[in-house]
Amino acid sequence: MPKSKSTNSDVVASESVLETVGAGGETHQQASGGSSVLTTDQGMPVSDNQNSLRVGLRGPMAMEDQVYREKMFHFDHERIPERVVHARGYGAHGFFETYDSLADVTSADLFQRAGEKTPVFTRFSTVAGNKGSFDLARDVRGFAVKFYTQEGNWDLVGNNIPVFFIQDPIKFPDLVHAAKQEPDRDFPQAQTAHDNFWDFISLMPESMHMIMWTMSDRAIPRGFRFMEGFGVHTFRMVDAEGKSTFVKFHWRPKLGMQSVVWNEAVKINGADPDFHRRDLWNAISKGEFPEWELGLQLFDEDFANSFAFDVLDSTKLIPEELVPLRIVGRLVLDRLPDNFFAETEQVAFCTQNIVPGLDFSNDPLLQGRNFSYLDTQIKRLGGPNFTHLPINAPKCPFAHFQQDGHMAYHNPKGRVNYEPNSWTPALGAEPGPRETPMGFKTFPEDASGAKLRIRPDSFADHYSQARQFYLSQTLIEQGHIQNALIFELSRVERPDIRLRIVSHLLNIDAELATQVASGLGIAELPAPAPSAVAPNMDLPLSDALSIQKKNPKVLTGRKFGIFVTDGADASLVNGLSAAAIKAGAAVEYIAPVIGGVELSDGTWLAAQYKIDGGPSVLFDFVAVIASANGAARAAKVPAARDFVSDAFGHFKFLAYSPEVKPLLVKAGIVEDLDEACVELSSAKAVKAFVEACKDIRHWTREAGLMEAMNGGTP
Ligand code: HDE
Prior knowledge:
CATH architecture of the largest domain: Beta Barrel
Shape: globular
CATH topology of the largest domain: Catalase HpII,  Chain A, domain 1
Structural class: alpha/beta
CATH class of the largest domain: Mainly Beta
Helix content: 25-40%
Distance between the termini: 75 Å
Radius of gyration: 29 Å
Number of strands: 18
CATH superfamily of the largest domain: Catalase core domain
Number of helices: 20
Bound molecules: CIS-heme D hydroxychlorin gamma-spirolactone 17R, 18S
């Protein structure tokens, strides 16, 4: 049966919009703005966006259909290459506010005036996974900040871990190849638990310090808002007189650090693969702007020479106890991008982007990065003009003679495109910009020596700081590192690789190596790996390296999940919710059906989640408040049972109304309930429960569990 031709009368030309297009030189108004007329890229109004042009009712398509061809051509080219590493990321705009003038150490314009606000764009990322991977991979997180200063863009392209895997940039492609999917099978995605990664690591002892960090809870953060950030390398600050001071950059989250536990991470990835980006989006949308303070470790050449490790070696850090942080300002993220692709995807961070008053050090990784980032942006963004994109363009005045290339958006005006030149307005042309003595000057460091492919002896100690990090953790955190290593290595097929890793662990801590070996069923410990220099077994411990020791004990930014059923005690629900909100937390409700529930006093409570879609892994603390009937029914529902048993298994604080006991019985936890599982029998109990939640997790429960499993040491 021939089909009848449908017409499109939905899109009606609006004259007022047509007038706007073309006004003020704006020729690219998008059709997305309210009632605009839909046009082609060329600005031609489109009469039918539902049907392509055909010959007759059932005949072939006419290739003449330029509207179809343009639309499909554009669609076919929508993707740009994703980043080789850090492909999955999420960004936000904000500002950096300088607390006090830093003129004593740097002439950098953004640090001169107390209260000065510099606009920034920040992008957080995972490293190994592809763009569509999940957020809670065990991985390093990128923490890249573009400061749009009055003297040009400064990109501080850091991570949430202060050290790195390798010492020489020539190893970076090998590291990344080994970490990403194996090339024949293209899996596993976004995880290092596979042979190639651990094979490479086992042959690169310099990575051992970083491995301690990536196996720690730092690699499974609760959200971007709960992470520290680090510039990693030693940089220089240079003052107006040309005096140089070495500097390491640290970001400190106002909410404190928090991580999830591994089993939780695995489940979050299923329940909400966008857990981190959603958290950032929600926080900024609600006006709860995430904030970090910038801390500097400042030191001079004398300190650098006296320090036991080379400050140019990115596998080492300087403990805060040795060089305390000078807090110099705050970063506030207060605006979401208008468009993910235009901003977050197209932002091009380059470590080479620094400003007068800052300089590089000779850290080989930093020097190597300075080539790689520019190079990668040309590939990703298709040419040298990526600074013409608004997200990458400086926000200060700029003038240069760069011209042409793909997509040149603002070539210099006028006759003169070279320098020096002798043009003047009297001769008929503007001479264009000139260099200034105030411009960027490289610190005139002495540099001489033979050209060598060599690693200095000062880079040779690969284990001492790994040991320092491991021993500085709480026993619980040490247990997490052991378990992470056991898990990762249990996914490695080749026993010789597992053994090689254990041989390195023996140089870090005998107990760590023994626990991991036993978790892997290795009956006989291998010999310790040969070590270029004997590790220092006595480095002082550093509390600053532990997440748990730094718990700020606040509920701000945390999320309470309250599972309610019809008939739930209204005063209990309202009292708990009010106490949690007063303490700074957000409250969300989970119910048997998404519509919500009728509470005991007849009021209606809307729910944000149906129980199957709102597992307890999405919340920091949980409560179940149910009627007797509701609890009995919930006890039959696997998702409701998981809600409480997972919360318990993830060492969360758990509160419940007295009627909920049958659910706890069915969930198999009733006999194990401890002081962090609180029956809400009174208003006092509610208050005490909310107060106790400030511990964030009840680690004692985990200690007991470990003791039961190990028959001794946690
Ligand atoms: Fe990167 N890194 N990296 N990296 N890196 C990239 O640049 C590279 C390193 C970091 O949100 C790439 O734009 C080399 C350390 C972040 O857009 C690439 C070496 C640190 C981001 C690249 C390193 C980082 C990147 C891929 C060893 C912490 C994401 C896409 C010498 C201090 C930035 C891109 C964003 C991205 C190269 C090591 C952080 C290929 C060669 C150390 C946060 O250029």
